[in-house]
Write a structure and sequence with these properties.
Elements (H helix, E strand, L loop, with lengths): L6 E9 L2 H10 L1 E5 L3 H11 L7 E6 L4 E8 L8 E2 L7 E9 L7 E2 L3 H4 L7 H4 L11 E4 H13 L2
Parallel strand pairs: 1-3
Antiparallel strand pairs: 1-8, 2-6, 3-4, 4-6, 4-7, 5-6
Length: 155
Amino acid sequence: MSNSDARVEVFVFSSDSITNIWAGYGARTWAVRAGDSSATKAKITKSARFAPGSFGLLYCKPWKAFTVPFVSITAPDTQRSEREIWHDEWILPFTFAPLSGPTGRLMGDELYDLLEGVGNNFSNYLSVQGNFDFQPSSILRKDWELIIRKLSSDA
């Protein structure tokens, strides 16, 4: 595999509001919504792939935009839920180091012109649905670098 074909795994976490993204950014913590017991079990199982040093990206559903690329600092805590940062209960909290802030936005539609590997459906390239929590998207390394540069320049 040539350097231009090198790939990285990026975990995308969706949010129903920019307020939740700002709260997570401020706390340098992210977590996922608790669901029914089978959905929660599946999230716990998938979260084992998310280790310190993993790459991540937040997605704001109302904006239909990506924001806050980050590197994880801790693995998800399977024994704790988070109730202080956001309303309701959130599970599998982890800490992260942001590479830019929530003021930078990369609209999903912008990916078609910006990224080489996106194809014809950006949500197949970078999975944005909540049921894909802790399921990485394998993208071209150069595309990840472009995402970081674009979001950092807009910050």
